[in-house]
């Protein structure tokens, strides 16, 4: 133990010695007239070794500086790719900073995260369309309006195909099939239409009168398409079928308010003591109540109803 | 630049006000000054017309007593104390209703009016205006100040004896009877108002046929145990009397849809929520709002806050809706 410490001491002493020697050796040349040199123990670590200055890598100017204005962009950005600031010659800014301007494109994670469509500029699309044209047939001339298209081809089938360049080329999303058609193409009567709508539920859009059926429960696209077709057939035939329990439909099940069957008619008959048909102005009143119940409460329906009641009960109309 | 313009405008305004010698901080209007255009001196609702719309009229102190036990919103009451006067703005819906009431054919079944609108739009005060009109024109006032008070802050509940499974709100019923009595004091002295049938409350207590209406009311106030059933009988009697032509009635209920909303804060002894239809008081007022009697008019207000407007299909909905 003691040996080691003695050795360490010797070692340290030798280092100190060396450093002292160096200090004297490398000290600046003072006039040789001085006999004694100044002992400088403070700058021991002085100029031991001059570190090599770190080589700064030469940063080339961004490639966008060397791009010609009339270059073919489709060659620069041939396919979908994350945003690369040096390659895109646009001064794009994205993001928010509280004080100051939006961050620039360099080192901008936001720009890299969002999808970009730099691979689908109009000239590129045009080129792709030209390339695909030889596989297409011309659009039939007689199908020039939407109505004709709907009349002859009422059913639309939507599906996507995917192609990967990884070990599997398949994508499970390609089995999804969407079938859309307009309800008026089925030409159902009122009762059947009501039944159809109850069966179909949320898949019907009132504004566009379209029924959308999305199938994805089978593994293959063809199977899903067949299933969708089967669903449409089943729905159609089921809604045309009249079941015996459908006659039990009561006022509470009605999807629409019909004035004839409701308490409102009974009440107005009681008030007047006459049959509904004989009461003057009853038409306006029944229509107003129908509208109010079916369309919901809005300023128009309420005012309409108020006016109708005033007329029927002979009460002065609202002052202007 | 802007500052000087603003100060100029201020100076101009001060000059004008000095010229017209009306100081906004004065509590008394000078005798020769013109009354401000937002007030009208016409304090009788029977004479209010569309020309008065937008102006404030003052309810005289003598007639203020109809609102003694309720009828004006609380925040408004505080303001009447501050300003030392009860002023209501004359608004189109109330003028509309008053107009209709004037031209109504009272031999036909009762017409029902509904005031509805967003919170703070003036439904309760319009009701108060029409109530004042009713008071002035000599109608019997059946006024429920705020149904929410009964359904949500009932003072005391008890199981009803007369009806199985129903709940009585006796203290509230007695309070309402006091309110009814104070509103209609001048009319109840009329000797024509007599009860049409016997009301038996218990073995020893009954109100005989032919007794004046005041006796029925007093009984309800004194015997709180039977107050709710008293209210129900009173409603019946009022209908009979009105149909018979002894008096005209104005039924005014503030917050009517509280009678339908299932989530009340009335609880049974077992802490179960009581639906309003199980409260005896409801029956009385629903009876009054039917259209099987004439010589009367019914005015209802919608209660807002957490209660949504209800549309009740199987009960009457022949009401007139007035937009505010």
TrEMBL record, chain A:
Keywords: Ribonucleoprotein, Ribosomal protein. It comes from the Eukaryota. InterPro entries: Ribosomal_mS35_mit (IPR019349), Ribosomal_mS35_mt (IPR039848). The keyword Phosphoprotein does not apply. This is 28S ribosomal protein S35, mitochondrial. GO terms for biological process: mitochondrial translation. Residues 170-240 form the Small ribosomal subunit protein mS35 mitochondrial conserved domain. The keyword Ribosomal protein applies. One of its GO terms (cellular component) is mitochondrial small ribosomal subunit.
Automatic annotation (TrEMBL), chain B:
GO terms for molecular function: structural constituent of ribosome. InterPro entries: Ribosomal_mS29, Ribosomal_mS29_met. It is found in: Mitochondrion. Transmembrane segments: none annotated. It holds the Pfam family DAP3. The keyword Ribonucleoprotein applies. One of its GO terms (biological process) is apoptotic process. Residues 26-47 are annotated as: Disordered. GO terms for cellular component: mitochondrial small ribosomal subunit. Keywords: Mitochondrion, Ribonucleoprotein, Ribosomal protein, Transit peptide. Belongs to the mitochondrion-specific ribosomal protein mS29 family. This is Small ribosomal subunit protein mS29. It comes from Asbolus verrucosus (Desert ironclad beetle).
